[in-house]
Amino acid sequence: MRHGKKFNHLGRKTAHRNAMLSNMATSLILHKRIQTTVAKAKALRKVVEPLLTKAKSDTTHSRRVVFSYLQDKEAVKILFDEVATKIASRPGGYTRIIKTGTRQGDNAEMAIIELVDYNVLLLGGDAAEKKKTRRSRRSGGSKPATEATEAPKEESAE
Length: 158
Fold this sequence. Notes:
Layout: H1 14-31, E1 33-37, H2 38-55, H3 60-70, H4 73-86, E2 95-102, E3 109-115, H5 120-123, H6 126-129, H7 145-157
Antiparallel strand pairs: 1-3, 2-3
Helix pairs in contact: 1-2, 1-4, 3-4
């Protein structure tokens, strides 16, 4: 009977699966966003969220526990210095999975998994505040239509 067996084995042996998820967790922490299949993203979320919660308390023990899983000093440093300060007030739900369609080769469902507090487009950060310019074939380029019509009137009045 398979009562309570919910873990997705991802078609790999235990050692291979653990190594793959550890490498994916390191990449997610370093790059803040990675593209993978939906099944791997869901499995990765179950691995990364406890590590992010552990990073909220910056103690030697928690650093050693996280390092024992990630095996990357740079990723541990970024996790405890940068990421933990951003997620300090968040009670959970540190990652977001966005489905992006299917892969052309084998029709696998693809997704982007990202850290929630690092998506500046959804948060309305610096990238969202950039002024949008519309490219049209009408009047003189980037000036709004009202400025373009007012300028000739001023010249004719002189």
